[in-house]
Amino acid sequence: MDDMLKDFVVEAMDLAVNVEEHLLALERDPNNKETLNAVFRSFHTIKGGAGFMGLPALVAACHLTENLFDALRTGAAPVTPIAIEAALQASGFVADQLTDLSNGARPDQLASMPDSLERILVNAIEGKGDAPAKVAAPAPAPVAAAPAVASPAAAPAAAVSTSAPGADGLDWEAMYVSVIPPGTYTPAEKPAAAAPVAAAEHAAAPAPAAHAPAAAKPAADAGADRREEKVQEFRAASAPAKEDSIRVDAVKLDALLEVAGESVQAANQAAVLLERLLQFKFEGPAATLMATLTETLERASRYSAELQRATLATRMQPVGRLFQKFPRLVRELAKDLGKDVELTIEGAETEVDRVVVDSLYDPLVHMLRNALDHGVESPEDRLAAGKPSKAFISLKAWQEANSVMIVLQDDGKGMDPHALRRKAVQKGLISESGAPTDEEAYQLVFLPGFSTKEVASSVSGRGVGMDVVKTAVEKNRGAIHIDSSLGHGTKFAIRLPIELSIVPTMLVSTSGAALALPMAVVQRVVELPDNFMNVGGAPVLKDQGRPLPVRSLASALGYEACSEKVGIVVAAPQPYILAVEAVDGTADLVIKPMTAISVDGITGTARSAEGELVLVVGLSFLMDGCRGTLKVAA
What we know:
It comes from Massilia aquatica. The chain contains 22 helices and 19 strands. It is α+β, with helices and mostly antiparallel strands. The chain is flat and about 90 Å long.
């Protein structure tokens, strides 16, 4: 794919995603003129670029959809469910064509526009379908039936063509309209010519006499309309717009972040060496040189930290880029399942590392599909349970300390922990005594092969979805927690580090090993006594009036026993105290993932300021109470 076509595909795919979001908003608020205009502009822009790139099927689909939205925004056609459905189908066709191009297909290999898509678009333009046309609208004009009709840009062109040239012989109004975005300028009304021509072009409800001026000069107007359309298409496709951003290859950003992280690490090591060097006595010129060296290293350290922060900022993206794909998915799937579901989204502006945004799409799709199939009841069942027939699913994101929280919650039937245990035992995934608490029972849904459905459907039931969710979250050094109330709904809470490569940590040591704990789960440090209370055979310590279990980090990781005198209160779903030998401070570490080997509880490695190798304890491991993932029963 050449660079120009590649740029067009990237820009057009962004527009196509925004179109779907606008269409679903329009379904809720059909009279929103701003949304109608936004969809019209998006299809017009894609059509212009597609024409410039020689993509006839895209041009045809966008042209008809553009005509539809011109009719909708002028009132010539009503905003009906069939109009929204037609536009969604057109948007899907556009997305398919762009995806094929992105995957390497040549323009001449693309499919042509389906006849069914053309029919539904024409019906929507003519006001046919499941809602009657407005009383004021006459029989539809044949503007949408022919494939070579003029674009909606023709309306302003027709109006402008009636304006008189200025004293210098130039039609300044026409030239102004040709270089501004469509729909942003309304020419001043002309007493006899402009209004009737525009009205006839849009098939509105004009007075009978209004047809005469329109018919008086068809050839001249058609030529002007066609010229204006070509000017608008070329401008949309090729005119360089002023941009505040540029596209940079992600590989280059990753390399820049790697260099920035190493520079910070080098600056920290230099600071440690300098501190040790200053323990010696320097006199005369040597003392002056040491003072200058100290100042220079401080400046270098400050600039390397700024470089690191600026580089990280280039990788941050709003989760809205991910969330905006889901309303269409929920709408289509709810329709297939015969359920009435509304998805609400909050916190779309929350920023997170681009790697997280890219890798969370599939997990969130699995979670939404399960919520729709398993969690949300049918309208009849909801009414029988005393609930509204419409179900609600919410998707929220927000920043919390050094983490981002993503919560998916439904108001469905909830999960029964007893039923989950029975099903897991029946499938041989756990023993009879496995998953004793409700929290552990909820975690059973993440086991490979686990499903509560007896018969697999096209949506779920094969037990290959939720384990993908947990794996993807843990791969990004995150943790997932489930909270459910039988009859009231289920909540999935995902906690992820905002930045994947550089993580604020607490440095600890135990059994001779240097370890780092993510600060996202550290509440405070407490001193441990020589003797503990025992509850059920397990050590317990009171912290701020509440008894918390004490767990040994050395024991959890399989290290040799040692004298652990320091406790770290961990902010997990079930809080506990983590016992370590010593706390050595805090540091922002550049984390390198472990790829060659897999160690339970360890998610990566880093270098301390002294250059010592540090093992990073996984966030998910800590959130699960320093217990490994549930194992399949032997």
